[in-house]
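Lab notebook, bench 4. Still working through the backlog of constructs that have no structural model yet. Next entry is a single chain of 727 residues. Request: give me the structure tokens for it.
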Amino acid sequence: MKVKGRVTKDRPPEKLEGIQATQSSEQEHFFASIPFSILSAIPHAVIGVKNRIIMFANERVKRIFGYEPEELIGKTTRILYRSDEEYEEVGQLFYPVLERQKTYSHEFFCRRKDGEDILCRLSTATIGETLKEKQIVAMYEDITEVKKTGEALRESEELYRTLIEASNDAIAIVKEGRHLYVNQRFTDLFGYSKEEATGKPINFWIYPDNKEKVLGIAIKRENDSRAVPDRYEFKGIRKDGSLVYVEVSASRFSMHGETMVLAILRDITERKKAEEELQKEKELFFTVLENNPNGIALIDTQGKYFFVNSEFTRITGYTLNDIPTGRDWFKKAYPDQRYRKKVIDAWKNDKDHVGATIDRQFTVLCHDGTTKEIEFRTTFLKEFAILVLKDITFKIEAENALKEAGEKYRSIFEHAVEGIFQSTLEGGYLSVNPSFAKMLGYDSPQEVIESIKDIRTQVYAFPEDRDTLIKHLQGHGFIENFETRFWRKDGSVIWVSSNTRAVKDSSGKILYLEGTNENITERKMAEEALQKSMDNLRKLLVGTIQAISTTVETRDPYTAGHQKRVSQLARTIAQEMSLHRETIEGIRVAGIIHDIGKISVPAEILSKPTRLTELEFNIIKTHSEAGYEILKGIEFPWPIAKIVLQHHERLNGSGYPYGIKDGEILLEAKILAVADVTESMISHRPYRAALGIDAALEELTINKGILYDRDVANACIALFKEKGFSF
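Model written out:
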């Protein structure tokens, strides 16, 4: 009798579905040893095998292999494999193992009836105690899709990990206030290895006075992420103890059912330093304005006065509160209606000449009711006007040297979204993300891939930059922060910073390139604007100093040009001594105004044509201290006030005003002293004729090491004798 099922004494054959058996008692014994309930419940293909002949098969073989159970009965298991070789491989692998143990499992490729190849997990078990009796039950599980899904997941994880590690920004995943993961850029930022950083609390890197702020934001984010800013800054500490300024963008997300925080950190230390430097320059700018001997007012494009210095108030009597707008100024300073119209018409005509400096003279009614003749010098800039006043009623002359100032301070850095790409070495894009497409002005990544066939000429504004990048990648395999310019779809050009990696095969051949591009156009523009503003402020400072120098020399016509020549010689001596560029600049500036204190000395003494009396000379000697008092409140980048104070001191203590000696005198003051003595001796004075260069060099030769620094004196002598220096 043939039945589907196995022959049992307690179950009717017609109810045993899913198994095809033969009539032999051997097969019946084989089936009788297998519980029917197990065969019916197993969701995989199950066959019974003896001597590699299929004895039975359940209904699942049809779903997995496409065969009816009847088609397999009596066939060898070769029918299930792709080739004779693989069939033999299965036998050679399984049977030796099954001689030692009851079960064994492994993965093999099989072939369905329709010719499709599938990956199966083959699990086997033996029935019987002796090798001769052993019969095999084999279960085939189709794991093709599972494998594909697992491989895709691993590839996806590897891609995201690669992109995170290649990011320009430091990235950390935080769980319960501690770092669960950090990328390489994070370790670069703080100087700790990944092992050291992982597990650390978030406040580990935060400067003490910033911890309360950062922890407060973290706590608020736990309660309501909408209550915290998308981006904030804090001051951090590196492993070596140095400070680093960090900008953070953080957001919550869920992973494996747990809430975590993704933090993106960016090093903004250089930006902070630039901002601080600009702020110092700005403060110096207003300090110079406040200490300027002329009256100064700054007026915006709407006619509002937003700054007047104390000299402006001294001259006119008006404070900033008295004249908040140009209209208030015109009404109070020019009460006569017809005269006021004349002044206003002149102002309207002048303000159209942006960048020009225009001189005017008007009669002004001061706050105390007196009238003064005022000379106005107005410079019209793009954002505001600089008004310089001189009270020429009493001949108080001071020349304003305020020149162009830069544009108002503005933000120098904004967050830029990174574009991610893969490209061929030949110049086509394999894949790009939406941010990359948006950065180049395309509607979609697909449009980028289809439109751009030659990256070198279609993307790079300067194709030679592409050549440089490829050459570097061929030699090093990776390039960071490579700055270049890209064409956008609309023909405009943007700056980008690129991090690119060459993916190579085992032989070292480049397969493709991948990396990230960041749009840094705004940063570049901000850097250029910042540099321009700082340059203009420095020019303004130099111009003001020159104006102060001119003020002194107008009171002492016999020494006109003396400060300029001393500054020139002192700077050249410093260059001869190979001093630092900033030190040389400080010496030059100090030289220009080293006699500013003479503004407090009566003009009749300065220009006296006969030799001075002891009393008169003592008055002259006060000019060093007077100069110090004038300059000490101005925050120069160099110790200008102290240099001016010491420029008449001598090594042996015989100088003035304090009689200090060698170790107490600044090198800059020693250089200025030699330059001052040399220029004075070779120039004409009211009380004597010029002594000449030979006398000056003899003075230095005799007294070097006694009155004058030896190295400074030698440098000065060499300039005249060997280098042909002349004024």
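Notes after review: Residues 1-28, 396-416 have pLDDT under 50 and may be disordered. The radius of gyration is 45 Å. Flag for follow-up if needed.
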